[in-house]
Amino acid sequence: MKLAVSIGDPNGIGPAIALLGHEKLRAFCRPLYLVHPKLIQHAADLLGIKVPDDFDTHAPSCAPCPVTPGQISAEAGAYSFASFTQGVRLCQEGLADALLTLPIHKTAWQKAGIGYKGHTDALRDFFKQEAIMMLGCEKLFVGLFTEHIPLRHVPKAVEKERLVDFLKRFEEETKARKIGVLGLNPHAGDGGVLGSEERIIEAAIAEADGGRGVFEGPLVPDVAFTPAMRKRFTYYVAMYHDQGLAPLKALYFDESINVSLNLPILRVSVDHGTAFDIAYRADQTISLQSYLQAARYAAEKVSAKSGARR
Amino acid sequence: MKLAVSIGDPNGIGPAIALLGHEKLRAFCRPLYLVHPKLIQHAADLLGIKVPDDFDTHAPSCAPCPVTPGQISAEAGAYSFASFTQGVRLCQEGLADALLTLPIHKTAWQKAGIGYKGHTDALRDFFKQEAIMMLGCEKLFVGLFTEHIPLRHVPKAVEKERLVDFLKRFEEETKARKIGVLGLNPHAGDGGVLGSEERIIEAAIAEADGGRGVFEGPLVPDVAFTPAMRKRFTYYVAMYHDQGLAPLKALYFDESINVSLNLPILRVSVDHGTAFDIAYRADQTISLQSYLQAARYAAEKVSAKSGARR
């Protein structure tokens, strides 16, 4: 399995993760790093480590940028975007089976004049398809029905047709046999006393499920993630960003990954940022958990798919 | 320390908890159960257990009602309300140091013509004071700035003066030396791109804190409860119900309790409902964790207060 790895912002912890995680990745896939040999060598020198001999690189179609630890720069923004788009291209051309993205810095992208808020946003535009953001780990995955919008816009975004469509795609992509769908209001509206959006959610669940018993809900949000409920569900659909991600990150912060569903390519990502504050610092330890989980998830999906094709 | 225990809905798990938890409670306080001896005897017979010899009761000022396991009834609703108000009275008259309430059933209260949504709502009205709802356990407490309102009403409820007042009272009541205040929007508004209520929250924090460094925020909601953040904060203020309670219950469901702050009496409660589905069933185990934690919390607060008075 060939895994394209975009390097992320060179001034953050992306290069260190790629270098330190290489051996573990090699155990189950063939990583292909979208970075100039010169740049990764510079990063390795700053980190005081060696670039592994079998560290396969594929340079993005731009000049390498200097590494300036912890700095927000337009060059680094442009470089991380080029690395990312190169990875997308390799997947489209069948030269890689999946893309693992290391963290970019949003302000660096802005400085470089890149008009996307992040990877997912860019992927939506590249493919003109409604990518679904799912975060989690093998114990708990949460799909986000709404994502980066102000909380005050969330209630009106709960529309039946859009939700039916979302639920169907989420099921199709995850192949989950049981999916918990959260309500919107405290106590899931408590029979209408605390909000009425649950009627829309109920109707959407009924239509997407068609009596098959795959979808359950609207679940009472504050008790949806208790230990007893997590025995019943591994896959959840949250109505908004923090509803799903706060419980997920309270429970499984280090091991969580980010998966883009409903796209022509398989893209996974670490669930953390560039961590400029600890980048290239000898006194800081960088967790590889999310990175390795993301790579493993991609490897499993690819092998399941090729198994299904046979 | 004398602890008044209101019995909750007699058809739920309240009487079983009082009976089964008695010996453990006796180890650190003097419980006084607000229930007729005849009613608790009936409950004990149904449960096939004995009423302990030193089970002190103080009958509410109403007739005892029959116990009908798992049934919603007006009589049971009226009885649980009478038991509760009796407990409030004992605390007001100094005959008890704190009140521990066992769960009531909201619909049973409605059937009995009681116009309150629950204990906290009633306490607000009795004392004409803005009770603060705090839930949690010794590892993590969350105060709720807004509670039982539809999510769509939450953003406009974030008003500076009300929040300043809430923060001051929360600090005064908890004596916490560090309090994390959550933002409202994803990524705490991300500099205004994802909502602007964080500016109000920021201003309220600045005013309540006055440069003392007690309050911190607005915290990014989805990462406020990660293990690293929980090392920094034990006390949090959430802007809305599920923002605070979903992470809390994901982490510490069984041991969580409910505390009413900012009232002339000290009132604690279990953080679960009447559990009609398992009430009086020999094949079901009832967790006493939340009950015992609530009693212990009350005992500690009372002893801290009397220590301060000396």
Element layout with pairings:
Two copies of one chain form a homodimer.
Chain A: E1 2-6, H1 14-26, E2 30-34, H2 37-47, H3 74-92, E3 98-101, H4 106-111, H5 119-127, E4 132-137, E5 140-144, H6 154-157, H7 160-174, E6 179-182, H8 197-209, E7 215-219, H9 227-232, E8 235-238, H10 241-252, E9 257-261, E10 267-270, H11 289-309
Parallel strand pairs in A: 1-2, 1-3, 3-10, 5-8, 6-7, 6-8
Antiparallel strand pairs in A: 4-5, 4-9, 9-10
Helix pairs in contact in A: 1-11, 7-8
Please name the defining characteristics of this protein.
elongated, alpha/beta, 10-stranded mixed beta sheet, 15% strand, homodimer, Isopropylmalate Dehydrogenase, 42% helix
Can you give a write-up of this model?
Two copies of one chain form a homodimer. Chain A has 310 residues and is an alpha/beta fold. Chain A folds into two domains: 1-129 and 263-310, 3-Layer(aba) Sandwich (Isopropylmalate Dehydrogenase); 132-262, Isopropylmalate Dehydrogenase, CATH 3.40.718. Chain A is 42% helix and 15% strand. Chain A is built from eleven helices and ten strands. Chain A has helices at residues 14-26, 37-47, 74-92, 106-111, 119-127, 154-157, 160-174, 197-209, 227-232, 241-252, 289-309; strands at 2-6, 30-34, 98-101, 132-137, 140-144, 179-182, 215-219, 235-238, 257-261, 267-270. Chain A has a ten-stranded mixed β-sheet, sandwiched between helices. In chain A, α1 (14-26) packs across α11 (289-309) and α7 (160-174) crosses α8 (197-209).
